[in-house]
Amino acid sequence: MSLADWIGGFATALSLENLGLCLFGALLGTLVGVLPGIGPTATLALLLPLTFVLEPAGSLIMLAAIYYGAQYGGSTSAILLNLPGECSSVVTALDGHRMALDGRAGTAIGVAALSSLFAGLATVVVVAAIAGPLSKLTLLIAPAGLTGLVVLGLFLAALMSPGPLLPAIALILVGAFLGLVGTDLAGGQPRFTFGIPELRDGIGFVPLVMGLYGLAELIRTLESGTRPDRIAVVRWPWPRTADLRAALGPTLRGTAVGGLVGLVPGANTVLAALAARSLERVFPPRDRPLGSGAVAGVAAPEAANNAAAQTSLVPLLSLGLPVSPVMAVLAGALMIHAITPGPAFIAENPDLFTALMASLVIGNLALVALNLPFAGVWAALLAVPFRRLVPLILVLSLIGVYSVHNALFDVWVMLAFGAAGWAMSRLRLEPTPLVLGFVLGPALEEYVRRTLLFSRGDLTVFVTDPVSAACLFAVAVATVWLVLDRHLRQRHARTG
Amino acid sequence: MLKIEKASAGRWAPLALALVGVLLGLVALQEPATIEGRIGPGFMARILAGGVIGIAALLLLHSLVSRSDDKPDASIKGRDSAVAGQMLLGSVLAFGLLVPWLGLVPASAVSAGLAARAAGERHRLSICGVMLSMAALVALVGWALLPPTAPLWPWQ
After folding, report:
1. What are A184-212's pLDDT values in tens digits?
2. Model confidence, pTM
3. Which residues of B touch A176 (CB under 8 A)?
4. Residues of B in Cβ contact (< 8 Å) with A226
5. Neighbour count for residue B110 (Cβ, 10 Å)
6. Partner residue facing A411 (CB), from B8, B92, B118
7. Cβ contacts of residue B7 below 8 Å, gap of 6+?
8. One-character DSSP codes across A25-59
């Protein structure tokens, strides 16, 4: 594409109508991300009829803005209230909320916004420059390779989860089992639903997370009385130079990891955030250890999830492969205008493609302009006495949960997981591995099934497939390393 | 540098995990592992349940060998704190029971009031203020974001 095409794209994106749609989408996406329960997929689906009266460029710009706006918003509620608004925000909450409890909520929000901005702008270059060739490479990843990637992702989830390793692995397996409840995709029959119709769609992610994180955390905090009633916000609510220096490396690495993961059909932003945070364990953080409010624990996953969200456009636009429910809705929006995403999309619609890329730049800048000044305002929320925040958190959770299917069943699920989460906290078990297993487990089953179907039951395919072999080798090496390291430490402790 | 967290988790956690694993195993047995030589709906479930049981057994063994006697976290401070958790769960229960009768807005207000009480709010005026503000918030969110069929009020 020539410079004239790009200038035309920016001109289209900067038209009054498209600019307004971009800002509207970004704002709505942020709100959707902050409020648990009303996810971007549902919001996109609700707004799909609006695309009938919009131009193709405007439709795509607005819907894409909602999607990456939700990534920004999800981190805000995760940091402030430990209520992940989006799946990938679960990872951000680990350090982000810790920073908020230390009075550095504004810094956390600022770092999240800036890291997301960098990742967003950097991946626009990737998407624009190498969409075609890179996406062809990802088609080389067979189901066995995808299985290996998910196994690696689950292992990383266990490694980076707070608390002991073996219980974390057990909880990941429990979470993966819970993810199997619903309709068996292969046979189309309900599985483990006990005759409850509402379970045919599976256990909802929102009530599960609201119960385990929202409700259980509130109960634990109230019972232990460890949280101060007010959290004093440090005078300067935005990131300082030292924070930005600490965020630089993780942001670069998170962008690279997320950008690559987003290209893989079947991978999602959770996997990207997990991989980025796990990678940070190899590099010593500049400020604090991971898990205790490290800037790297916010910068890396935030950069990764925004990068993955944007590069997931590549398989859609260049191959016609929607890799997630959100991408499927975007594909639907294009087809409404008789535009078929696929190998010929960029060649036949260069103006639409460049306009979308331009809107990604504009949208990311707009989101930072909206989020960064308000970081101090959001952080001031924590100065509100905790006893006044509790009803707000609870009501937001209840409405968010109810709004998913307009059904009370989800409220009961939230109550059940709230009680389970409280029991887990009494047993000193962390909920994060269970949630991550729940998200990744169904994908694992699907890829295992597909792999064995294609290989006709031959298990050696997991070793002969290069991607799968590499992932399983990495897991094996890391396991041996951990066992040896532990053995050496114990020996060292015994000998003094 | 990769670091390891300490592996000990007492006996209670492994026992709980073992119980959960057995329950999951019993549930997994409801579905066949294979169907005509292909993976059935119960295949992955059995592997996962077996994994949970195996890990729980390892942890239990470790706790017996290391004579760890960690008790469940007993950091509840005082009777009021213990009641707080029950009231919070009760507020969710109240929401679920009241929505069909009163609608989302009044049910949220009642739930918020119970939650405020659970959080230590004592003044009636403050509790009323919390209930009214939460009702207003839910009304606004319901009007702006929820579908028209959402039962915000008793008459809907």
Report:
1. 877 788 889 888 888 888 888 778 877 88
2. 0.73
3. 44, 48
4. 75
5. 18
6. B92
7. A164, A165, A166, A486, B59, B62
8. HHHHHHHHHHSTT--HHHHHHHHGGGGGTS-HHHH
